[in-house]
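Reply to dn_fold:

You asked what the input looked like. This is it:
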Amino acid sequence: MSNSSSKKKILDYIERTGYPLEIEISSLLEDSKWAVTGNYPYVDPVKGGLREIDVYATFPSALRQDEFLTKPHFLPMMLVECKKSATDSLILFPRPNRLFSWEDLEGQVFDYPKMLNKKLPESSYGPPDFLALGLSRFLVKSLHQTKMKACNTYNLTSEKRLIFEAVATLLNAQSGLMESERSKAQQFLPGTLFHSILFTYLVIVFDGPMFEANVRGGKTEVEDTHHSLIRAAWNPKGVANLIYYSIDVVHPDFFTKYLELLQQDISLISKSMKDNKQLEGYLSVDKGNPTLGSVNYPPKQA
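and this is what came back:
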């Protein structure tokens, strides 16, 4: 076989895969100051063994080094699955009256005080009612998803497995990250006064036509979309009740704008955390119970 024939076969193979899309998305993330790891391995929390996710990214710029030990921080992460179809369209079905809610975040928030069964504090500021159900309720007012309609149903024009598998991979990987953090429960980080707020954006980048099909009064209207929201439920091993997640579905052409939305999220959340005494009371490290620590950021790949 000639060298040119081999190259052609390799190029044909690459074009059929999602690898070019993964590289493109990774580059856009790095341009926006995210630290990126491709083909990130995680331990399957249900079946055991190693699996991998297309892209794992963290946002170290959110960490204020001079206040690391003395102030709480919002540390966003991102898990991305990249999917491509040259023949099928993705159709998402929003529920007409179902907007995004704080409950849809539960599986994405690393709520350390809740993990440690910390008693809610009371102070001169009064009981932290807004934290009675954990950090999800605090975060929801600042996230871009707030005004989006949640889609519980989705499909491709020929079959469903491609997107279903992407959703399952994201939920499994996030559960794996959560289990990894829970396993750090006995670690102690000297001098830390507050737990950080870790949050994972779950994202499917779909390179293909995307539509939302709105059903109203027995009639269906189909509209183009470049950014939609899937509401998914998962029952990780050892958890009695369903846990809910919100997955952003983004077209590659919109991904730069999507990252701008996330930057707005990060700015709003950081601002709402500043000098927030109720939040600091909730996140303060219980001296009788060691901190879980923070995520170990993976090295940035070339």
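Residues 3-283 form one domain.
Hope that clears it up.
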